[in-house]
Amino acid sequence: VQLQASGGGLVQAGGSLRLSCSASGFNFGINSLGWHRQAPGQQRELVGVINSGHTTDYADSVKGRFTISRDNVRRTMYLQMNSLKVEDTGTYYCTTTHRGRNFWGQGTLVTVSS
User: Fold this and answer.
1) Res. 15 pLDDT band, cuts 50 70 90
2) Is residue 91 a contact partner of residue 104, using CB atoms and an 8 Å limit?
3) Across-strand partners of 38?
4) At 106, phi and psi to the nearest 5?
5) Which of 44, 51, 49 has the alpha carbon at shortest distance from 66?
6) Cα(76)–Cα(6) distance, rounded to whole angstroms?
7) C-alpha angle 97/49/59, rounded to 5°?
8) pLDDT tens digits, residue range 57-94?
9) Percentage of the chain exceeding pLDDT 70
10) What number of helices (H) and strands (E) belong to the chain?
11) Strand duo 56-58 + 44-50: pairing
12) 3-state SS, one letter per residue, for 71-105
């Protein structure tokens, strides 16, 4: 299983970014996928998830601002982040569970400046 997040960068508060997660090594179309993030000095937290039916769920802190989507043909998951806040700063990881194991990809850093 390989997961690779990309698209991070530096953005001003109120701005937008779109992260991508490319995946391989498992049946992408039937797996639930998630985004987690970790701010400096803090524990990782769940941002949101999307299941095989494209149903999504989000942490309260990002509801209404972030949108997760997936393209099963491209084996890619996306995280559209709007109205970014300084507290959204952190490394973002895409995740999935395969055969009972949790897999985390290499993260991408998002920095939101005030």
Assistant:
1) very high
2) no
3) 44, 91
4) -70, 135
5) 49
6) 11
7) 130
8) 999 999 999 999 999 999 999 999 999 999 999 999 99
9) 100
10) 0, 11
11) antiparallel
12) ECCCCEEEEEECCCCHHHCEEEEEEEEECCEEEEC
Give the number of other Cβ atoms within 10 Å of residue 23's Cβ: 22
Residues in the chain: 114
Question: What distance in Å separates the CA atoms of residue 104 and residue 71, rounded to the nearest whole number?
Answer: 19
Q: Ramachandran region of residue 100, left (φ > 0), alpha (ψ -120 to 50) or beta?
A: left
- Here the contacts of 71-76 (C-beta below 8 Å, separation 24 or greater) are 72/28, 72/29, 74/22, 75/22, 75/23, 75/24, 75/28, 76/20, 76/21, 76/22, 76/23
* Identity of residue 11: V
> Which residue's structure tokens are 């937008």?
16
Distance CA 2, CA 46 (A): 19
